[in-house]
Amino acid sequence: MSLHIVLGFGPAGAATARLLAEKGQSVRVITRSGRSPEPGIEHVALDATDSERLTDAVRGAAAIHNCAAPPYHRWASEWPPLASSVCAAAEASGAVLVVLGNLYGYGPVDGPLTEKLPLAATGPKGRVRAAVWEQARELHEQGRIRAVEVRASDFFGPGVTDGGHLAARVMPRLLRGKPVATLGDPDAPHSWTYVPDVAAAMAEVAGEERAWGRAWHVPTRPPLSTREMIDRLAAEAGTGPVAVRRLPSAALQVASVFSPLIRELKEIRYQFDRPFVVDSSAYEAELTVRATPVDEQVRATVNWWRTRPATAR
Q1: Distance in angstroms (rounded) separating the CA atoms of residues 92 and 104
Q2: Distance between CA atoms of residues 197 and 293, nearest Å
Q3: Other Cβ atoms closer than 10 A to 284
Q4: How far is it, in rounded angstroms, from Cα 9 to Cα 25?
Q5: Residue 72 pLDDT greater than 60, yes or no
Q6: 73: pLDDT strictly greater than 60
Q7: CB–CB of 295/161 below 8 Å?
Q8: C-alpha to C-alpha distances, 186 to 245, 263, 277, nearest whole angstrom
Q9: Please, where are the H alpha helices in 142-243?
């Protein structure tokens, strides 16, 4: 049994921590606020930008899974010190650093996204996410740390709430058979990465030396449009079909005045206004995790939302 550190306890961090615990690993979750212990998981309250305290907390760890992220509208200012602190802790401890990344760093591209594409984003969020990996990769190439990144498309599945495009803005209305408004073109092909598959990839690459030193796309099923996904969710829930419409630009402008999240989404609108397709064949050719069948993803997601208290939806 090895010690695994999980930074952050959002949907991906929680899924990764629980999967590692199920596999019999010793798991320590680090968040700013901490939480009550749960079976197989120790929770520690700690600001991960405090490099000295973080280094103490990860001593003896086999791997550090960085699933933490600053608030969306503070990425540019808060990601650099967080990433530097995590890299310093990985170097001091010798733990493998597993970075959970996304696809912002590529910027808009024509055709499927592969890991061979340059990190050519020009927007602030895309550049900062690219810089997080570039810093870790450079330290890996210098022999100072061992690092690997897994990149996911938009999260989908149990535990995904406010930040998901098929979550809090969709599921509560869908379960009541109400019309749903979506960001961008609801008929554009789009890749959705299932959170349990993210966790499985994080756990796998941590122990696979041949995976280290590069980025991998989390195994992801072939793309389905937002409308197609909503139709499947509504059919599983027995409330469909529900009407799906594109959120008007004017409504987005008004909402952005009051919501930092909506305001920041302008940078990545291209992901929903045109096809956004992830190619995860490199991972599937070299490693063992496979994407969960879509029907299973949909069933688990609907069941999870149905069991949430109404006040939490």
Answers
A1: 29
A2: 10
A3: 16
A4: 17
A5: yes
A6: yes
A7: no
A8: 7, 20, 14
A9: 171-175, 195-206, 226-237
Strand order in the sheet with 26-31: 41-45, 26-31, 3-7, 63-66, 96-101, 146-151, 215-217
Tokens found for residue 261 = 């999240």
Average pLDDT, the chain: 93
pLDDT for 267 equals: 82
Residue indicated by tokens 């897994």? 150
Gyration radius (Cα) of the chain, Å: 19
Q: What is the pLDDT of residues 87-132, one digit of tens each?
A: 999 999 999 999 999 999 999 999 999 999 999 999 999 999 999 9
State CA 302 to chain mean position distance. Answer: 19
Is 304 in contact with 237 (CB distance < 8 Å)?
no
Name the band, by pLDDT with cuts 50, 70 and 90, for residue 262.
low
**pLDDT surpassing 80 at residue 54:** yes
Half-sphere exposure of 197 (CA within 13 A, CB side): 30
- Measure the CA–CA gap between 285 and 281, rounded to whole angstroms: 6
Could you count the other beta carbons within 10 Å of the beta carbon of residue 153?
23
Helix/strand/coil for 108: coil
